[in-house]
Amino acid sequence: MQFFRRNCDFMKLFIITLCFIQFLCAAEKPNIVVIFIDDLGYADIGPYGATKQKTPNLDRMADEGMKLTSFYAAPVCSVSRAQLLTGCYGVRISVPGVYFPGDANGLHPNETTIAEHLKQQGYSTQCIGKWHVGDQPEFLPTKQGFDHYFGIPYSNDMLKKSASTGVPVVPLMRDDKVEELLPEAAQSEIVERYTKEATEFIRKNKDKPFFLYLPHTAVHTPIWPGKAFRGKSGNGNFGDWVEEIDWSVGRIFETLRELGIDEKTLVVFTSDNGPWLIKGADGGNALPLRGGKGSTWEGGVRVPTIARWPNKIPAKSNCDAVAGTIDLLPTFVSLAGGTVPEKPVIDGHDLTPLLFGKTTTSPRGEHYYFHGYQLQAVRQGPWKLAIEKQNESMGQKLNDDSLITPRLYNLTEDIGEKSNVADQHPDIVVSLQNLAAKMIAEIGGANPSSRRKAGIAEHPKTLYPVEAKTTPQKNKK
Fold first, then answer.
1. Please, what is the Cα angle at 437 between 434 and 442, to 5 degrees?
2. Which residues carry out catalysis?
């Protein structure tokens, strides 16, 4: 009997010890929050030079963390999101551009997302906001590693007329079901609703590691700032919506501080591409960079990015090393204690040494600028070589100087890409051309050696019944 009791006591102690070890392991894993803005330009927030709209919460985030000034996304929406989620250039995984409601294509279910990697490390996961890598059932967030989803699954301008009401709407989804159909004016509440959902998720998961992916609908056109923010910024509706986004960032940080988990949470704030310049006052600002959304000039793909993690990322720090959204997956997996398999290949690298101030050298020697399946430029160090024509922005014509190829720019001395110095550095031109040729052979062009398959749904349809398009009948004589 005594032996039995001793064994029971030993087993209890063993179980308690094991639970404590598991608790400590979980405690070591940081919470991770990614705030991903739509169409926010390089100079649209205070830390990057905005003056018309005020962003005090982002200003504070930059003061308490790191500003990354050579951080790259992609030219347009869907490919940018696919790159962030998978750590791959969009062309490698056959996501070249923008998906529309009811498209057959989407991010292939076989691709492993950040959320799927972090789930393996014991994380709770939620996506709140604009998904936009496929709206068919097999492509939705809940099939790509997220426990839950709440948001408009594509761009807020992709309204279609509801078959029941005839009103143009977008769907607001809860997990894999349409919860509401939102007319355009209802988008004025979307930042507030996303923020409420985000803070509730944080509260619910405060005692275990979590991954919150918050890809906002704002500031994509149509511009719909909330009622409390309209007319407040001094920069029209666009500035008002940026200020509401800043408010949302502030609410996230307030919640983290209130719950006492601020110091074990990494928050990354960034954008999917540059500003949509043809939208005028509703299109934002990328200066001093050249170009905007839809372009591989710096203004189209270099985006404002801030990373904050108290006592880990040095406060008031700046990093100009080349990095980008493709590097987030390996960085997060490393911080969570996992490893990224060698196969299938990803393009990103772990940014932890950069973020922690251990180095100023990028783990990636090069960055490649794809427009669709076409490689248009490559960067190595300060040098950027354009090998194809580049439009200034989506909907804008080519400028005369962009018709010349190749074109070489020293981005350290010429951030606005105004002076082509190819004739002065023929050796650098040849070196970068060789890098470009190798990457084109691997994943670009018409016959790549290492491009993976796109996701294809067999019977695609819109998420809600829409009015059928009618073909006008010709008048009978």
1. 130
2. 77, 132
